[in-house]
UniProtKB/TrEMBL annotation:
This is Peptidase S53 domain-containing protein. GO terms for molecular function: metal ion binding; serine-type endopeptidase activity; tripeptidyl-peptidase activity. Its cofactor is Ca(2+). GO terms for biological process: proteolysis. Residues 176-548 form the Peptidase S53 domain. Binds 1 Ca(2+) ion per subunit. It comes from Planoprotostelium fungivorum. It holds the Pfam family Peptidase_S8. Ca(2+) binds at D498, I499, G526, D528. Gene3D superfamilies: Peptidase S8/S53 domain. Keywords: Calcium, Hydrolase, Metal-binding, Protease, Serine protease, Signal, Zymogen. The active site is at E248, D252, S456.
Length: 548
């Protein structure tokens, strides 16, 4: 039985979602963040360093650095001090996290500081929060050389990558994904983790419920393991009143802990009022000494709308985390090649990549379907009844990293029905890298069973699989995987179930009523921009990665 889809909180730049309420109140308080310029040609240096520790053939494979070693390479302490002392002499309050300086002040002070005019915006879906945006700003001349850019001067543009169906759409004829379906499909026989750690990124007002997690674990006879650490504000009691505000977070928590039963599973939630949830998160991680080994992100934004310098620096932060042995896993999106604006509006069809899924240093995960209904694994697409369509394509901002040259060139040379190469960024970073089940996951949300679909499910499941691998590596005295893409692209094909069926031209939605665009990519033998290299065969993957 099919019922109406319920969209989770949707934040988009689409004008309809935002209401400009006029000039910001001069006395209101806001925080802007100065990103202090890094040293040693950070992006290129990090890239060359991470090749040495992530290429399987390198004799430095897995030789990760400590936070202080990474800071010694990239952190411009003198510039940070110059910016701090200038702000202090101007009477500003600030907080420094590594090379990011957060200035909290009145709008009128910030307007003077940045020679800017702030406008106050409200979002139709977010009560009691005001967001601030300037159309133009400048950095004071005294610190201009030391500051790369300023954050929190624009509106957020992030959505979670999952789709919820109402409670009445329970276990149905299409079949459901449960922890045992995942274990069976990927050949996972032991979900116990002894020391590897993992973490979830959450934002946009999502909460997880510890009670729902326990109920889920009981329902599937999983060990009762709670989330061990929450950073930020989580209100699990809100889930029974407002399950939509918990669907994403409950999905992530329940399935990450089902697949990798780590007693060190963290939950890091960025406040709903954040104007840049990804940056607020990566800034914290960039200096956190207790960061988990693997992080899963089930959210995305429209890459073409993000400023290139911001994205480049974000990439460098992910790269720096890779140098420290940390893996970032990101969902590839639920709306095929066109991305979420096409969900409501066919005029938005086109090739619109997602960020941070297209960061060259994250592992981007697409969605598959089929095994939950006893069928072969195919790409999850809404025109095959998948409710969502696995996101994928090519970055318009970042060039293809060399680790995927061979796989992507092979695709471009042999792809069936390849769209005209002038329509997409044929030389861009191609995504996703891998795939995992993303259809009809049963979760407990607000005390009731709910069924959710999305690359949002695929990402925490794949992240948890890497936690299982990390655990074996650590037990064997090796280091964590860190940046794992080069190793995965070098792996023998026998590690993967190659997903060769599907086309990602449709957006998320009910079969028959969803927006389908003219153009999309087609799954085929080998890597493709729907399911990447394929879905994992755990034993083989674990054996291969365990030997590196
Ligand atoms: C499962 O894995 C854990 C951690 O590696 C190990 O301690 C335990 O013995 C394993 N259990 C089985 C049944 O193999």
């Amino acid at each position: 039985m099919r019922t109406t889809l319920v969209l989770l909180a949707l934040l988009a730049t689409t004008v309809a979602f935002w209401h400009n309420t006029g000039r910001a109140q001069p006395q209101s308080t806001h925080t802007v963040t100065f990103a202090v310029r890094q040293i040693n040609n950070a992006a290129a240096t990090c890239d060359s360093l991470i090749r040495k520790t992530s290429e399987p053939s390198s004799r430095h494979y897995g030789q990760h650095k400590s936070l202080s070693q990474v800071n010694a390479i990239f952190l411009n302490r003198e510039a940070v001090r110059r910016v701090e002392s200038w702000l202090a002499t101007q009477g500003h309050q600030f907080e420094t996290i590594g090379d990011y300086i957060k200035v909290t002040s009145s709008i009128s002070n910030l307007e003077t500081l940045l020679s800017a005019k702030f406008h106050a915006y409200r979002h139709f879906n977010i009560a009691n929060k005001i967001f601030y945006k300037t159309d133009a700003h400048t950095v004071p001349i005294e610190i201009a050389n030391d500051v790369e850019f300023v954050l929190n001067v624009d509106l957020p543009r992030v959505i979670p990558h999952s789709f919820t169906r109402s409670k009445s759409a329970l276990v149905d004829a299409d079949g459901n994904t449960t922890p045992s379906v995942i274990n069976t499909q990927y050949g996972i026989t032991n979900n116990t983790v002894t020391s590897a750690t993992q973490s979830l990124f959450e934002a946009l007002g999502q909460n997880f419920s510890p009670d729902d997690l326990s109920a889920f674990q009981q329902q599937y006879q999983l060990p009762n393991i709670p989330i061990s650490k929450v950073t930020g504000n989580n209100d699990g009691s809100s889930c029974s009143d407002n399950p939509d505000a918990c669907g994403e977070a409950n999905l992530d928590v329940q399935y990450m802990l089902a697949v990798a039963q780590s007693t060190e599973t963290h939950y890091r939630v960025i406040d709903q009022g954040s104007q840049d949830p990804f940056y607020d998160w990566i800034i914290e991680l960039s200096q956190a000494t207790d960061t988990a080994h693997v992080h899963s992100v089930s959210y995305g934004s429209l890459a073409p709308e993000d400023p290139k310098t911001d994205m480049q620096r974000f990439n460098t932060e992910v790269c720096k985390l890779g140098l420290r042995g940390v893996t970032i896993v990101v969902a590839s999106g639920d709306d095929g090649v066109a991305n979420f604006p096409a969900r409501q509006d066919p005029s938005q069809c086109g090739f619109v990549p997602s960020f941070p899924a297209t960061s060259p240093y994250v592992l981007a995960v697409g969605a598959t379907m089929g095994p939950e209904a006893g069928n072969p694994e195919i790409a999850c697409t809404s025109d095959a009844g998948g409710l969502i369509t696995t996101g994928g394509g090519f970055s318009v901002t970042f060039n293809r990293p060399s680790y995927q040259d061979k796989a992507v060139q092979n695709y471009l040379a042999n792809a069936p029905n390849l769209p005209d190469q002038s329509h997409f960024a044929v030389n861009g970073r191609a995504y996703p890298d891998v795939a995992a089940l993303g259809h009809n996951y049963v979760i407990i949300d607000g005390g009731s069973q709910t069924v959710v679909s999305g690359t949002s499910a695929s990402a925490p499941v794949f992240a948890a699989i890497l936690t299982l691998v990390n655990d074996q590596r650590l037990l064997n005295g090796k280091t964590t995987l860190g940046f794992v893409n080069p190793a995965l692209y070098k792996a023998p094909a026998s590690l993967w179930t190659d997903i060769t069926s599907g086309r990602n031209n449709c957006a998320a939605g009910q079969e028959g009523s969803q927006v389908c665009c003219d153009e999309g990519f087609t799954a085929t033998t080998g890597w493709d921009p729907l399911t990447g290299l394929g879905s994992p065969k755990f034993e083989q993957l674990n054996a291969y990665l365990g030997k590196l």
